[in-house]
Amino acid sequence: MEANRKTKALLFLFSVSLICLSLSTCHVSAYAYGRRQLRFNNDGRFKILQVSDMHYGLGKESQCADVAPAEVPYCSDLNTTAFLRRTIASEKPDLIVFSGDNVYGLCETSDVAKSMDAAFAPAIESGIPWVAILGNHDQESDMTRETLMKYIVKLPNSLSQVNPPDAWRYQIDGFGNYNLQIEGPFGSPLFFKSLLNLYLLDGGSYTDLGGFIYKYDWVKTSQQNWYEHTSKWLEMEYKRWPFPQNTTAPGLVYLHIPMPEFENFNKPTEMTGVRQEQTCSPPINSGFFTKLVERGEVKGVFSGHDHVNDFCGTLHGINLCYAGGAGYHGYGKVGWARRVRVVEAQLETDQYGRWGAVDTMKTWKRLDDKNHSLIDTQLLWSKNTTLGMNIGFRCPMIPQH
């Protein structure tokens, strides 16, 4: 019996080796070197909690902004911490994404590491994998954007990266550009494939470009080139042996400063959620949205930055979504609860009852109100939804001469 067990174990290891060899190179993922691999759970689901604009300062010494007068005496950064702990316990996400302006060092602290430790503490305590990107306020203390990311990647349970391993190839701008691959669950034929691809990007902070009122930075050409290369590589891997797929795996982008295309939504009928302030996007449209449309894999772009916007709108097949502000030390609106956004992907089952590719993705928001309300549940994307042809178009007759 013992000999049979050893033989089976050796055969299994041999088969795994063959699969890796067939992939030409076993791709070094974001979770190599001792970091855990992200994958769908046994229910075929993967849930992402997005937390944006915590603006964490000095803990209980940092007062809340834009709350009711009765709340002012006892409201501080600790309210943000309590909200995050409450939400993690309720939602039980598989991944937490902090999408920028995590800390607020401007004129407040000379020890931003201490503020970050406190800001990320609920995620660290939970044991759940988490990642972070930077906003325009994070570096306004005693750390540069590079040193901030180098600190973040070393924190417990963090899967963040300073930059991708091949960043030198693109001379990539910024710090905090990386890809996360969510693989199939145990027992699935797609165990070795990434079924959902996340792209986290450093959208920068400010630009010295003159002549504009809002001088926020944008996604640079180098970052777009890296995204395009990574997207094509992942598509190739998804379509090759074993169990080749005939489509591309869906992708999601997380970026702090919203792209100019977020400005397209103004009417309630065009969105789920609300707009309560203008979109503070870069003065330059760098064409990143065009690149996403051309590639066709990204189904949603998730931003922060504008705290009292929390809507989702669809443009050319891509959902553009705000998270809404989660932090009490950053600006908000009296009577409008702080909030976070959740995205959940669900796998389909094949004819044998095994988990297959992503079937649907939906999203909702959690509020820090008395009932911890869940609002605005909506379908982001479905594998079976296709755009119909415009068969109503007619060309005018061209007069002959």
From TrEMBL:
UniProt keyword Transmembrane helix, yes or no: no
Residue span, Calcineurin-like phosphoesterase domain: 46-308
Signal peptide annotation: 1-24
Protein name from the UniProt record: Inactive purple acid phosphatase 14
Pfam families linked: Metallophos
Protein keywords: Signal
Keyword Cytoplasm on entry: no
